[in-house]
């Protein structure tokens, strides 16, 4: 009798596990947000907001790295779990991101996180920025849009970016600035007013349609990439100026999504990750963000270019107030989300990330002994433990450059310092330039500004082990031919190519109160 009772209990437990709903997953990917842009990460002037609440009530990572210091390759790496050079996303040219004329995109042969989660029974949706390709043959074929990469729902979409040429105060460029809904252009050039509000409405619409089934939402914000913009309700809301206004609107957007999860009773069933694609654009001066205690910014393999804020929020599953120093990377997101969703990785695909599920759920240590940073076949940095070996630098933009070249400084401080005359900006972002004859070693836990190089001779064993890891990795590092530089004017998106200018605002019957020039 007791044996039979035990068997019934065991079967009941199995049935419960089988019927348990997989957790919902939301990834909020901010554009160009620096390690020091949030109050919860130490910014002294930025107002506290809902993202800071997430950090306070969830897990904050202090050693999380993006896979590349620029938009296109970093986003591709997160969605595939693979080094961008494996599928041609690291040209040894000046082309480091997709443009309106690009004829390629994220290859269909790449198995995206959206496809993996959809195969596990998830509804999949995307709102916001894409930047992984648009057209291949003409101005409207949409071959590389997210609908063909595993996303069943696609709301308002910036297929490229919120480019500086999209500033409505300075005659925005229609051939660069276009907004889609799904796979159709609805504004060209797009208008910033209510852009974030449209993203939020789409996100809530998607969540509302899938409250009874597991869903994956990729919410890739247009903030905080220049041209800076904010709805009128947020203009002047920050003592930090226009950039702070943008951060405050971002806080609002995140808060709306979190509040809706609470409203429909699924907050405890939803894992929310928030991070950035790359570091802040320091050359934007006071409109370019803040890397906090780190050196460098966007376009660099310095800490400020690749070490990102990352927050994991999952009420009643991830303990609030947790800080993790575990070494982790955007390449880890794919295997981690697949494991949390109950899946396993395909053995026939080479993944460059590792699951950090144990870090999220148990605050475990890192699974990484080494993290390698490549641009094309060129190695620029290796992080191991507290140490970082720097093998080169494509771009030099740092706080010294800001102080010398930004007329208002980075926080309204116009004071210049000695040495400005010789401190010039070197901006290339081209793979293979700026490589050193021998690496420079830093302890980035103690020296995050990378000011004090350590003597290599005192770390010879560590250096030998690093070179062994590099050799082992490169033995199986199969790179594809670069595709970012292949372009054609024929594929530039145009909402009405029968007219001299491609300009429109919600044309056609499918959208409300539109007009077309």
Question: Your description of this structure?
Answer:
The protein is an alpha/beta fold and 517 residues long. The protein has 11 helices and 17 strands. Strands 1, 2, 3, 4, 5, 6, 7, 8, 9, 10, 11, 16 and 17 form a 13-stranded mixed sheet that branches. Strand 12 (371-375) and strand 13 form a beta hairpin. Residues 1-19, 410-427 and 509-517 have low confidence and may be disordered.
Number of helices: 11
How much is the average pLDDT?
A: 87
Written as H for each helix and E for each strand, in order along the chain, the element string is HEHEHHEEEEHEHEHEEEHHEEEHEHEE
Shape category: globular
Poorly predicted ranges = 1-19, 410-427, 509-517
Please report the distance between the alpha carbons of the first and last residues. 81 Å
**Main sheet record:** 13 strands, mixed
Count of strand segments: 17
